[in-house]
Amino acid sequence: MKEIKNILGFFILLAVLFSGCDDLLEPAIQNNRDLESGYNEPRFAQGLIKNGYARIPTNGWTFSDMATDDAVSNNETNPYFTVATGQWAADNNPLNQWTNSKAAIQYLNLMLESADSVSYTIDNPLIDRMFADRIKGEAYGLRALFMYYLLQAHGGYADGELLGVQILTRSQDLTSDFNVPRNTFEQCMQQLYADVDRALELLPEDFENVSNISMMPERYITMGASVNDFNRVFGEDARQLLSGRIARAVRAQAALMAASPAFSNANTTTWADAANYAAEVIELRGGISGLAPNGLTWYTNVAEINNIGGGVNPGEILWRTSIGGPSSDLEAAHFPPSQFGNGLLNPTQNLVDAFPSVNGYPISHPSSNYDPTNPYAGRDPRLSHFIIYNGNTAGPNNDAITTAADGTTLDALNRVEVSTRTGYYMKKLLRQDVNRNPVSINEQLHVNPRIRYTEIFLIYAEAANEAYGPTGTGGHGFSAYDVVRAIRERAGIGLDNGDSYLESVRSDQDAMRELIRNERRLELCFEGFRFWDLRRWDKNLTEPARGVRILGGDPQVFNVENRVFANHMTYGPVPFSEILKYSAMKQNTGW
């Protein structure tokens, strides 16, 4: 069983199939080997699907928030700095998913074509059949995931038609016709849904051991499989591979995008579809009660992270990457300089202002009790969890960080190259028990989620509000209002007044929409959502990024960086190289 799960298959693939970009279709002479020769070598064959997993872009943090109104980079060579300041182009696109995702789909298609011919065991056709089913289910689910990334990054209007990418359901070779037009966005979404349906037919909801034969699918019982046979293939040893639950979550993510204003006029996905798909995942979790009580601080729940083992997930996380060993790279990049970091991501005043007062009212509301001369007092507790502001603490010794312009440490506004440009540093995602002092470096384990449950709850809230209104349930037993209330209660909002602001908007769909979008902004900040959310909402992209300059205790807001985006940049470009190569390929309007 171990070789089925072992990542070694990926390295064999690198040596045999991935010696260069061209080798995907025409291997080098010394590595020339037809696929059939790998049918009796499970590791070789499974290298195909391992390549799909290795190409998932959420295997690492992107920090595309630095190209939005939520954050800036203190490094002018950062690719998101160039995107935000007017240098985004079809031949200069740090957000490109075309090459990576299409290569992943090529490998997945090869796996789908060969899975039924591979011998995963020695003379056990039943186990071979189950392994083939599982791997095909994974491949279909992963192909849907990469279609989502392609549509998100490259879907757009060309000649008045909303287009997606070319739909490829067969592997390509030297005889293939590469000069084919893009399919419509709608066709791509239907292909994505079809792939999810196929994945759900083949995969269990979760990879867990079963205790009796009644818990197995009927088709395997009929074939004569035992509990041990089933657990060998679909049991807990396969945790963190793409499961039915994960496939459902991917479908909800894609449906939310498709139902949103920037895409909704040219496809058949509705808000109700998105709400229903998200509700399926939430109901598997037990409904509203499935919102993890400690999900707000998932990245720094030390005992939980340090005790993760056997592929299990913390309560907040639906799908994650491998934990790996202790590290301090994230802290090295983002800690303030006094904590021996490079302070790379600087949250904006725009984002800080989005955090309400602890009583639940926006700080612009007269009932918020907001004091502009003492701006961090009485605020949403998430502000202190997520952002280092002047006087907040950080690091293993819980040191106070002074970001004021007249501060005397390297943390002060614009003091040195790695100092903050906005008056703020990122605190979220970082383990404060990491020590970066060169004389006593201390590293810690980190968890990197691909999908969090809070995201799924927020997908439901947004879609359900649009489909059914704030308190409508669509037959699911919980409403957008219920989700928002649970999320804000977990954050410590409105506990003393029954969240009277939320109650004041519970019958107002427009006000609830803005509140849900703001909750999404806060809960998912710095996790790579804001860049895409602003675009799917078809919102203004050019709001300047602001900061705060504190002199003598007096905070003054100032513009840090203008955002330079043209109207057509609601949608990303097709790579310029593709337009040059293929006459049938249309570029999105404006690029």
Secondary structure layout:
Elements: H1 2-5, H2 8-16, H3 42-54, E1 71-73, H4 79-84, H5 98-114, H6 125-154, E2 156-158, E3 161-163, H7 185-202, H8 218-222, H9 227-234, H10 244-259, H11 271-285, H12 302-306, E4 317-320, H13 329-334, E5 345-347, H14 349-354, H15 381-386, E6 387-388, E7 393-394, E8 399-400, E9 425-426, E10 449-452, H16 453-468, H17 480-491, H18 500-504, H19 509-523, H20 530-536, E11 545-551, E12 554-561, H21 576-581
Antiparallel strand pairs: 1-5, 2-3, 4-10, 6-9, 7-8, 11-12
Helix pairs in contact: 2-3, 3-5, 3-6, 5-6, 6-7, 6-9, 6-10, 7-10, 10-11, 10-16, 11-16, 16-17, 16-19, 17-19
Describe the protein in words.
It is found in: Cell outer membrane. Residues 336-591 form the RagB/SusD domain. Pfam families: SusD-like_3 (PF14322), SusD_RagB (PF07980). One of its GO terms (cellular component) is cell outer membrane. InterPro entries: SusD-like_N (IPR033985), SusD_RagB_dom (IPR012944), TPR-like_helical_dom_sf (IPR011990). The chain has 591 residues and is mainly alpha-helical. Among the domains are: 324-446, no CATH class; 453-570, Alpha Horseshoe (Serine Threonine Protein Phosphatase 5, Tetratricopeptide repeat), CATH 1.25.40. The chain is built from 21 helices and twelve strands. It has helices at residues 2-5, 8-16, 42-54, 79-84, 98-114, 125-154, 185-202, 218-222, 227-234, 244-259, 271-285, 302-306, 329-334, 349-354, 381-386, 453-468, 480-491, 500-504, 509-523, 530-536, 576-581, and strands at 71-73, 156-158, 161-163, 317-320, 345-347, 387-388, 393-394, 399-400, 425-426, 449-452, 545-551, 554-561. It has a two-stranded antiparallel ribbon. A two-stranded antiparallel sheet has the order 2-3. A two-stranded antiparallel sheet has the order 4-10. α16 (453-468) runs antiparallel to α17. It is globular, with a radius of gyration of 25 Å. Residues 1-32 have low confidence and may be disordered.
